[in-house]
Amino acid sequence: MSWTISGTYVAGCSCAVLCSCPYDGRPRDNAGGTECLGTAVFHVENGNLDDLDLSGVDFAFYNHFPSNLSSGNWKVGLVVDSSAADEQADALESILSGREGGPFGQLSQFYGEYLGMERAKVSLTDEGKPGLTVEGRTELSYEPLIGPDGSATKIKNAMFGFAPEFEVGRTTGRSDAFGLSYEASYGETADYVFTSEETEGAVQGRA
Question: What does the alpha-carbon distance between residue 206 and residue 164 come to, in Å, rounded to a whole number?
Fold first, then answer.
């Protein structure tokens, strides 16, 4: 099957700023813990799985990384917005679980436990500060790090990342889903494009 999704994402996690996961370093939070618990909400501006339209759907991708990313044994879970059709939710689960190949097929080699898919209201927010909301589970606000020239700090050509270049910052808020609970600290955001045709570079420079 052929698929593509593109749009914007905002992510937050328990790691101290800056998160070491993009360069495959061992995670570390503000209390000295050595695991990464996180949430990324994606708005699909345009997307499809074969003839099924996925445009307009929001979903949240939850992670537990027990060590540096290439060590594997990840736990991942998915929440698809409750307004999406069941067929759209099933298609996104198939893509994110890696069954449809492409970049998530490459990343699925690191999955240790797939925690399943749930349904709830999922959205990106922009009320004063950008952020993400998963009803009853996660609410995070994001603020970018600002460099000397007044623009947001960005990372590019990372070992792991949802985009070739992404803005980094701080998040505040709390998450509790799939038995994964954390206080947010690090955050990032960017536009993204994923496609089933992308079989190279899914790990180095892209996620």
Answer: 6
pLDDT in tens, 100-113: 999 999 999 999 99
User: Domain residues of the chain, as ranges?
Assistant: 3-195
Q: Cβ atoms within 10 A of the Cβ of 203, count?
A: 18
The secondary structure of the chain, three-state, reads CCEEEEEEEEEEECECCCCCHHHCCCCCECCCCCCEEEEEEEEEEEEEECCEECCCCEEEEEEEECCCHHHCCEEEEEEEECCCCHHHHHHHHHHHCCCCCHHHHHHHHHEEEEEEEEEECEEEEEECEEEEEECCCEEEEEEECECCCCCECEEECCCCCCCCEEEEEEEEEEEEECCEEEECCEEEEEEEEEECCCCCCCCCCCC
Tokens, residue 36: 């990464």
Residue tagged 């905002």 (tokens): 10
Asked whether the whole model's pTM tops 0.85, one would answer yes
153-191 per-position pLDDT tens digit: 999 999 999 999 999 999 999 999 999 999 999 999 999
Instruction: List the one residue out of 27, 30, 21, 43 whose CA is nearest residue 193.
Output: 43
Give CA separation, 31 vs 153, 180, 181, in Å: 24, 17, 15
What does the mean pLDDT of the chain come to?
94
- Structure token digits, residue 31: 């209390």
Q: Which of 69, 96, 33 is nearest to 160 (CA)?
A: 69
